[in-house]
Amino acid sequence: MNRIGMRTMALAAALALTAPAAARAQMPAAEIVKRSLAAFYAEGKDMQTRVSMSLVNAQGGERKRDLTLLRKNMPAAGEQRYYMYFHAPPDVKGTTFLVWKYPAKDDDRWIYIPSIKLVRRIAASDKRSSFVGSDFTYEDVSGRDASDENHTLLREESLGGRPCYVIESQPVASADYAKRVSWIDKERWLPLKEEYTDSRGRMIRVFTADKVEQIAGHWTVTQRTMKNLTAGQHTVVLFQDTVYDQGLGDNIFTERALREPSASVR
After folding, report:
1. pLDDT tens across 214-233, in order?
2. Cα–Cα distance for residue pair 2/42, rounded to 1 Å
3. pTM of the model
4. Strand, helix or coil at 33?
5. CB neighbours (10 Å) of residue 140?
6. Burial of 93 (0-12, 13-18, 19+ CB in 10 A)
7. 28-259: CATH homologous superfamily?
8. How far apart (Å, rounded) are the C-alpha atoms in residues 158 and 161?
């Protein structure tokens, strides 16, 4: 083979090796975010886990929340049900929380307060309010729609030894943040870090995935932290005894179950 032929073959081989990387780089930012949301919020057909929350204020004082979280993916694409039962502390024990999540429209949310035996509907406008006093919002707990924001792929880089897409997301409607920059694991699709900034460019919240484990074939963030930089406080969440694909019944995710939780969660 002559020298020109050898050069041609070498060039073709180099192009073949770089083609997969180029194809990944060309993936639309919105598609990356959709895959990340699915990996973070919708793995398996259903999930049950015990959640421990540590709320740490600026002075180092700590409050605890202990709850059971159940989630089920519904047959209609993008629809989900969430149910939470609080075990501790005593002042919130027996409180239950229910979400009916829909794609491309406001979710339905209810909370049952046992001290007054009242089911209260949570307004859609409260989705970015604090979840039970923590630094996570209601939206952080049950997820958002990719269409709620405009997304731009900024670059690709490693974080903690994991190759990531770095995505900038700006809310379509007015929100408590101006943009969010996310580091999304290119292989597992989980968000490893998120930085929220306000309209003045000040960082106001930072999310980190502190521990990732594979449970029954599903990559799961089993420890996560949200820092509120404005207030100088943070919340640490641990997922324990996580089980996927139990075949959870629809009867768990009803208003009646808010008042009368099943023995499996109490």
Report:
1. 999 999 999 999 999 999 99
2. 56
3. 0.87
4. helix
5. 21
6. middle
7. Lipoprotein localisation LolA/LolB/LppX (2.50.20.10)
8. 6
